[in-house]
Amino acid sequence: MAGQLGGIPVLVLREGSERTRGREAQSTNINAAKAVASAVRTTLGPKGMDKMLVDSLGDVVITNDGVTILKEMDIDSPAAKMMVEVAKTVDEEAGDGTTTSVVVAGELLKKAEELLEQELHPSVITSGYKLAAEKAKKVLEEIATDIDIDNDEELKKIARTAITGKFAESSRDFLSEIATKAVKAIVETGYGGKRVVDTDNINVEKKVGGRIGDTELVRGMALDKEIVHPGMPRKVENAKIALINAALEVKKTETSAEVKITSSDQLKGFLDEEERTMRRMAERIKESGANVVICQKGIDDVVQHYLAKEGIIAVRRAKKSDMEKLERATGGKIVTAVDEISGSDLGHAGWVEERKIAGDKMLFIQECENPHAVSIVLRGGTEHVVDEVERALHDMLRVVGCIIEDGKAVAGGGAVETELALRVREYSASLKGREQLAVENFAASVEIIPRTLAENSGLDPIDKLVELKAAHERGEKNAGLDAYTGKIVDMWQGGVIEPLRTKKQSLESAVEAATMILRIDDVIASKRETLPPEGAPGVPSGGMGGMPPGGMPPY
What we know:
By secondary structure, the chain is an alpha+beta fold.
């Protein structure tokens, strides 16, 4: 890129850089974002299709989850990458609604392109979109309904809606029950009496083998570890659990030291002292009253032997995250010195046992009294099935968590979007400036959701959209499309319910991404550095910089 200054060219960008600007830059960015939206659009709704993604190593992912598809796609366009970020944000904040956000963002940009062709300035369009988004948020608040979070049936409806359309839908009643129980177990009271749900406190262990129906909820922890010594019991009832973050073995000296032994007596005394130290560790654990030891570090064979003689179960090299969850599940405290352990540091569980699941031994710590962390052992016929069920379960856990925290829900099945489109159109009539056109286009963009639901269900999208609009104009604010029968029904009565947070986050993220992409009118791409070929001028045939074939310069 060069500019003219008094007839002298001024070089600003490095040679080889690419620059697109004005309508060309906008058009390139909008087309990239639309391509991403169309890639996931067919996965939306109960009749959505799945995608098979194969990476460069040949690993296969089969999924219906919007954010997973976008993460796995090898995307090069910077504008398309922004759409991936939208999906990630929605996934982190609300768990579900990732496909919705990307599809709406793509449609907002498509409608904006029509306005740009009519010579509307991008800042006018973005201003209109922001006005419409503010109105839409107010409408969402108005039409949201309070949910009784003590009513498990209501929570299960929300979980079932999240899994509908995914591979594991056939087991949705069973999985929604597990998800609801798991989330209710970990609810805590935060600042100001607010309910807080941290789904990281739900440990999901995947095991290939069996079927989805073999999935179980453990009111405690399921550790992918086996008992260290064959002489230890395989089951302990009324378990008292010691959580130790210290190596149960003889410590090496901090500094580099040497011990000189000159006689066999000295050697025997040295070895005896080592054994006494390790025996003392086992005795100290026994004295504390513990009958189960979970150790974050190693356990020496001698210590294992003494623990086994005392009938104590031991597991070594547990993950730090598992240790923290065990603290929350059992009510114990992690101790960092064996000598300091006491009865008050021990956690409690109804029983602890080692079981073989799909050929692997696992330790189950069950029936904890008031666990603030729980485990779900996921089963499925193949690795792809287990992975997809885990993704569905993640969405279910997050939406149930959202509803427990916020207590507000809206109807699904395109009902919310149709109502929003109707109300935003009414609002656009009250505007006087050019923004009115952008607000109208926002309303049309939101209708892409019921339209896509109809398309993916093999129904006529125009007919169904007309029927939906007519129902909402009659005041049926919960009227949505039943993808199975093709009829317009009350979604709230049909049990298709979504958290308010999911819809708000999807809409906000979609508008933010669309407006950000619209405001770009100049794309400057630097040329990627490439190494000159071997033998090129200035490059010796031995490699770059005169380096010998071994790779190190000669001294």
